[in-house]
């Protein structure tokens, strides 16, 4: 599409926080956003129009296609077959491609595709029942069990050790009729990620970042990663090689393991903007969300260079049971130099639910990674202190 102002309308399957931030990024470009989401008054509805309906409801997707000039997604629960059929019916481009979504939304299919393409991945096997899981545990001396579809934010992933109740683990992971996948447990040095983006004839990769998880949930992202330059170069190469195996325009987030010997392997890929790329809103010249809008519409991409070292810290529901979401301590974040708060507008706080994030930018630091990580250590500590000062009433 030729860039114009006002611009076209972008239809997004999903209206959570990612849809909200896509709408915020699209607005300055003159691009209107319509989202499809089953939750009334979803987070994206504050900045975009909402069609209320299931992600895979053909009638709801048709309404979205009728109102949009291009379709994309912010959640893998979209149905690739429905998107493909309706995109062709209404002559509306769909990016990333339904084929890419088919590959990524099933973790076993995803891993097989990457392994076949020569992308480095941990060893893995299909698991259909407790006997299969017992075999996998013996083979790998313990494993990471993953539901093939539907997992997110640590849900759908469980470590399994010899002697565990394998039936209970399969049930807890939500394997269901689709079965599950077991992977070897990687003794990694750190978890890395690279947000890469493909446009019409361009591709970009944001700097390699480091992700800090606890209880399988992302807590902080440090940009750039506190790793050796050679490891960062290898991670970028692997990410761009992985991008070549997937069809369509848009942002793809590559989650990676850095092993103690410096080798890099792919953990998982998301066909959309990703939590580990939130730092780019303030920390990069062009955010991952603006890049996704540009790419899906076929517009020129922006630079993916970092402005300065940045830390992103997730604000999770620190509650024991669901309650209305009400956050205090906000003034301290707003008063901190170079700190930025993002509230997602979710009405209910639940245990460990992602309700917002903050970023802290080292405005005086150099953007390039180097051997001295002390400044980023300090930045991470200050971001944690700011985040930990936020409380739910």
Automatic annotation (TrEMBL):
Pfam families: ATP-grasp (PF02222), PurK_C (PF17769), RS_preATP-grasp-like (PF22660). It is an enzyme of class 6 (ligase). Its EC number is 6.3.4.18. Pathway: Purine metabolism; IMP biosynthesis via de novo pathway; 5-amino-1-(5-phospho-D-ribosyl)imidazole-4-carboxylate from 5-amino-1-(5-phospho-D-ribosyl)imidazole (N5-CAIR route): step 1/2. It catalyses: 5-amino-1-(5-phospho-beta-D-ribosyl)imidazole + hydrogencarbonate + ATP = 5-carboxyamino-1-(5-phospho-D-ribosyl)imidazole + ADP + phosphate + 2 H(+). GO terms for biological process: 'de novo' IMP biosynthetic process. Keywords: ATP-binding, Ligase, Magnesium, Nucleotide-binding, Purine biosynthesis. Residues 111-297 form the ATP-grasp domain. Gene3D superfamilies: 3.40.50.20, ATP-grasp fold, A domain, ATP-grasp fold, B domain. One of its GO terms (molecular function) is phosphoribosylaminoimidazole carboxylase activity. SUPFAM superfamilies: Glutathione synthetase ATP-binding domain-like (SSF56059), PreATP-grasp domain (SSF52440), Rudiment single hybrid motif (SSF51246). ATP binds at residues 107, 146, 183-186, 191, 213, 267-268. Catalyzes the ATP-dependent conversion of 5-aminoimidazole ribonucleotide (AIR) and HCO(3)(-) to N5-carboxyaminoimidazole ribonucleotide (N5-CAIR). Belongs to the PurK/PurT family. Homodimer. This is N5-carboxyaminoimidazole ribonucleotide synthase. The gene is purK.
């Amino acid at each position: 599409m030729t860039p114009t102002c006002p611009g076209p309308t972008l239809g997004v399957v999903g209206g959570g926080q990612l849809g909200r931030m896509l709408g915020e990024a699209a607005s300055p470009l003159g691009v209107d956003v319509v989202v499809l989401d089953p939750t009334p008054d979803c987070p994206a509805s504050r900045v975009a129009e909402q069609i209320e309906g299931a992600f895979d409801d053909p009638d709801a997707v048709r309404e979205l296609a009728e109102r949009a000039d291009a379709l994309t997604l912010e959640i893998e629960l979209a149905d690739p077959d429905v998107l493909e059929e309706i995109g062709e019916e209404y002559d509306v481009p769909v990016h990333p491609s339904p084929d890419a979504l088919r590959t990524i939304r099933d973790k076993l299919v995803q891993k097989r595709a990457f392994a076949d393409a020569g992308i480095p991945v941990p060893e893995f096997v299909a698991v259909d029942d407790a006997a299969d899981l017992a075999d996998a545990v013996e083979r790998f001396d313990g494993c990471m069990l993953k539901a093939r579809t539907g997992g997110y934010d640590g849900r759908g992933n469980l470590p399994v050790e010899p002697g565990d109740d394998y039936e209970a683990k399969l049930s807890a992971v939500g394997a269901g009729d689709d079965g599950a996948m077991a992977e070897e447990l990687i003794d990694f040095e750190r978890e890395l990620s690279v947000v890469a983006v493909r446009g019409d004839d361009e591709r970009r990769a944001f700097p390699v970042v480091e992700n800090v998880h606890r209880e399988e949930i992302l807590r902080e992202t440090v940009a750039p990663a506190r790793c050796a330059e050679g490891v960062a170069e290898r991670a970028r190469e692997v990410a761009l090689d992985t991008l070549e195996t997937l069809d369509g325009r848009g942002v793809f987030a590559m989650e990676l393991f850095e092993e103690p010997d410096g080798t890099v392997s792919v953990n998982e890929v998301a066909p959309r903007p990703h939590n580990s790329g939130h730092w780019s809103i303030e920390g990069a010249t062009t955010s991952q969300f603006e890049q996704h809008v540009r790419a899906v519409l076929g517009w020129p991409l922006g630079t993916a260079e970092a402005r300065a070292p940045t830390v992103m810290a997730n604000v999770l529901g620190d509650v024991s049971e669901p309650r209305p979401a009400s956050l205090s301590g906000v003034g301290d974040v707003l008063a901190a130099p170079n700190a930025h708060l993002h509230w997602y507008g979710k009405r209910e706080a639940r245990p460990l639910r992602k309700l917002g994030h903050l970023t802290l930018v080292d405005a005086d630091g150099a953007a390039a990674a180097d051997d001295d990580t002390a400044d980023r250590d300090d930045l991470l500590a200050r971001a944690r202190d700011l985040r930990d000062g936020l409380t739910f009433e």
